[in-house]
Amino acid sequence: MPDTRRGVLYGVTAYTMWGLFPLYWPLLKPSGAVEILAHRMVWSLVVVITVLAVRRHWSWIRTITRRQLILLALAAVTVSVNWGVYIYAVNAGHVVESALGYFINPLVSVLFGVLVFRERLRRWQWIAVGLGALAVLILTLDYGRLPWIALVLAFSFGTYGLIKKAAGVGSAESLTIETLVLLVPALGYLLVLQANGTGTFGDHGLGHALLLVTAGVITAVPLMLFTAAALRVPLTVIGLLQYIAPVLQFLCGVLIAHETMPASRWAGFVVVWLALCVFTWDSIRSAHTIRQERTAALETV
Predict the structure, then answer these.
(1) Buried-most residue among 12, 32, 134, 276 (CB within 10 A)?
(2) CA distance 51 to 176
(3) Which of 251, 298, 67, 62 is nearest to 167 (CA)?
(4) Closest CA to 150 of 138, 164, 139
(5) Rounded to an integer, what distance in angstroms lies between the CA atom of residue 292 and that of residue 294?
(6) Which residue, 270, 228, 262, 232, is CA-closest to 100?
(7) Average pLDDT of the segment spanning 37-54
(8) Average pLDDT of the chain?
(9) pTM score
């Protein structure tokens, strides 16, 4: 029980940190989204290498296969798209739309299950996916365009999770490889910015430089906390905890950034929340049924 409680605490902390990101990225202005992304890549590598050095955990390097390296390189590209679009969205005043992306991410994962793994969905799962599609249609009419930020965030993060699952490498280890893959382009971009005099690192005071460096901690810590949580609590609990992040992002957008929320936009979000309620209820019900069947099977042995 104490281990489970620790796992829940780790999960809550990870998702709370992710949910409060909209308060952090604006602090890095006047740095642009790509410059922030590059710093995030570079300093994340420093953090994970430090963690591995403290743990004296290097033996895993010899066990990495060529297939895993290729998959993690693809994961690095995918998560770069996700990070870059998210930073742009927050600093451009689209916090609510970015929250939408993480609200619909579970439905995208279900859709990937059908398309990639040929999984068969239960009736209520289909209803949840259908409601999610209806919400996207409502919000498309509201925005006057596809909510592309939300869709890119949802599909890129869903793809990232899919690739990481296929790679089967631990969080700190995989993040090390991913950031190593991204190090050369990220560092090269930052050096070019500084050489051109357009970089902001060191030109806006020590506080700004430290905030850019902190991007590494902000990136690595919640990922490792999430991994620790996933090892200690059931996936159904993780599934419920994951809504903490978009809820906090949404509240940041509405209450702090004061983004406009016309009635049509509220309608779209209500449909999304209804879809997630259906999805969550069905997941909990299914998990309960499976547990009952396993218990019955053990009793008959």
Answers:
(1) 276
(2) 10
(3) 67
(4) 139
(5) 5
(6) 270
(7) 89
(8) 87
(9) 0.86
What is the model's pLDDT at position 199? Answer: 85
Query: What Å distances lie between residue 202 and 32, 84, 198, 241, CA to CA?
Result: 15, 22, 11, 38
For 214, the 3-state DSSP assignment is helix
- Residue 254: what pLDDT? 94
Structure tokens at 54: 């403290």
| Structure tokens, 270 | 């209500």
CA distance 20 to 95: 11
- Which whole number is the average pLDDT over 38-60? 86
Looking at the chain, list the stretches that DSSP marks H as alpha helix, in order from N- to C-terminal side: 2-19, 21-24, 33-55, 66-91, 95-117, 123-143, 148-167, 171-196, 205-230, 235-241, 244-251, 263-300
Give residue for tokens 């909510």: 147
| Nearest residue to 42 (alpha-carbon basis) of 190, 204, 201, 211 | 190
What are 112-158's pLDDT values in tens digits?
A: 877 877 778 888 888 988 998 999 999 999 999 999 999 999 999 88
CB 37 within 8 A of CB 102: no
Q: Tens digit of pLDDT for each residue in 237-273?
A: 777 788 899 999 999 999 999 999 999 999 999 999 9
For 225, other C-beta atoms within 10 Å of its C-beta total: 22
pLDDT tens digits, 144-156:
999 999 999 999 9
**What one-letter code names the amino acid at 133?**
A
First to last CA, the chain: 27
Query: How many whole angstroms separate alpha carbon 41 and alpha carbon 43?
Result: 6
Cα–Cα–Cα angle for 183, 94, 277, rounded to 5 degrees: 100
Q: ∠215-42-92 over CA atoms, to 5°?
A: 50
